[in-house]
Amino acid sequence: MPAISVYVTNDDWNFLCQLAAENHSLPMAFTEQLVASKLRDIRDEIRYTEETQQELDTLAEFMEKSVEEAFS
């Protein structure tokens, strides 16, 4: 797995350390899990949005054909 460097402000780092402590985890391990989890959430949301858009496109095509047939 590639390593990445990310800059966070001191306030953000302190917040991450606080969250990690509350979850009985080391700050870096907690941060890695948090980032991975958020990326999965974003990827899942994009996938859902794309699937919904495909369904809407199919429905629009069906409706367009129905309107064309009604006017024929």
Overall outline: rod-shaped
User: Alpha-carbon distance between the termini?
Assistant: 59 Å
Largest sheet: none
Give the overall pLDDT as a whole number.
94
Your description of this structure?
The chain has about 70 residues and is mostly helical. The protein contains 2 helices and no strands. It has one domain. The mean pLDDT is about 95.
List its salient traits.
mainly alpha; 2 helices; 72 residues; rod-shaped
Short description:
The protein has 72 residues and is an all-alpha fold.
List the helices and strands and how they pair.
Elements lengths: L9 H13 L4 H45 L1
